[in-house]
Amino acid sequence: MTLPNSWGVVATGFFDKSEVAKAFSCMKAALCLYAENKGWKPNQRVINGILSWLGDEGSAEDAEAFVSSLNTVIPMNREMYHAVLKANIRAGKEVHRLLDGMKTYKIKEDEETKKILSMIQ
């Protein structure tokens, strides 16, 4: 049986070689296995890098699905919201629901949030 940590290690290797798309695929696999292995925690540096990449280059659907899976492992945070906000804004989608979600989780808008929101056309 493959453990999420195995996929996490492979994801870190790809991330360290700047192959973020491959790291993303491996981390998705790790998150799918998390339900059976609750003690695992993903590498926060790799997670933040993948979130940044998704916000800048990923589809809104990929960003939302990844954050939804990630939220089973770690609580929602500003970086997770920022990735989904950026991906949705780039796709021309509305983001009011996401901003309401930030308020629900008591995540205040910061300068980075305002910068992201300024991307709205």
UniProtKB/TrEMBL annotation:
InterPro entries registered for this protein in UniProt: TPR-like_helical_dom_sf
Parts forming coiled coils: none
One GO cellular component term noted in the UniProt record for this chain: mitochondrion
Similarity field: Belongs to the PPR family. P subfamily.
Protein name as annotated: Pentatricopeptide repeat-containing protein
Organism annotation: Salix viminalis
Native organism taxonomy: Eukaryota, Viridiplantae, Streptophyta, Embryophyta, Tracheophyta
